[in-house]
User: Fold this.
Amino acid sequence: MSANIRNRTSSTDWDLAASHLSEAGYAQIGPLLTPKECESLTALFPQEDSFRSHVVMERYRFGKGDYKYFRYPLPDAVETLRTATYPHLAKIANRWNAQLNSGNKPFPLEHEEFLGRCHNAGQKQPTPLLLHYEAGGYNCLHQDLYGEIAFPLQLVVMLGQQDRDWDGGEFVLVENVPRAQSRAEVITADQGHGIIFTTRYRPVKGSRGTYRVSLRHGVGRIRRGTRYTLGIIYHDAQ
Assistant:
């Protein structure tokens, strides 16, 4: 399974993905997982031993639905996706840092080294998660920041198929442009396909140079069915 996922990841047009990320703050890639691999991950959701934490969104006014953070060691498919996609995204992240003249240390090109940086800062809890929604469920706009260190890109993979397993439930990105009205993107993806998007902000060229644009993401209301997705966050949590 690991070799197949790595092969699919390496066959992605990462230059095209980088272009879409720079233009819109997101890029669609895939297929990353087969339907069988998606079903295997979905089947883990009821198994408490696979997870370190269970969050019911209504309790915190995050939305309506629930999600579970995996514990280490991660399932093979999740670990492979996280480590195989990271080097490609780290190159994009480093270009963004240079465009913003952030002065931040470059991101290492191997995920293990980046996790070492997180762990040294006290961020040692794994952040990949499974998200689950039933009819009426939704996720409020938010950013996934879990400590001082945050990787600027993340990945969500659809574990089911919209219009077959659920209706509605589109992935939503809202870009907050300084001194302008916010802009929304409503995105769908097929089963096993991924959406890479901005964790916090991205560089945008303006008439006076490059500036930061902040983005938040969420999920529109599910009208029918059950929606499962896999979230890959590259930094760990405190």
